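Researcher: We're teaching a course module on how sequence relates to structure. For the next exercise, students receive a sequence and then see the predicted structure as tokens, so they can try to spot secondary structure elements on their own. Here is the exercise chain.
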Amino acid sequence: MLIRYSFVLPLLSLSLVLGSCSIFRRDKPAPVVETVRTADSPAPPTAARDLADVMGTELQLTPDQTVRVRTILNGTLTESNAAKEKYAPKSPQLLAELKRINISSQQQLRTVVGPAKFKLLQTKATQQKIAAEMQQRQK
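Model: And here is the predicted structure for the students to work with:
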């Protein structure tokens, strides 16, 4: 009987040591938390810069035009974020204000890029290319 107990004690202590060792206890990786943006959430500050760069490449704008487009988009971003803070989400006031901001921005963009490139900007294919590039930049 004594032999059995003397053999069990070292096995028990060895199992306790190995069981508590960090090599054998793999911590679970931290959960990945992704930010979910809704239509009502404010646009990130880099959105105007990135969009201006993509538009500059896609429409073959001059560096001066790209800077001016970036300025217009920064203003549009600031105004739309302010409107989202001021009005309730999906309210008629918010929708009207965003529509006004959008029309003003489009008029300014048409002036900067010219009518031909603005028409190209409004085509579905160009909009899809720009949207795909923006998705890549956000990853």
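Model: If you want an answer key for the exercise: The radius of gyration is 29 Å. The CA atoms of residues 6 and 12 lie 10 Å apart.
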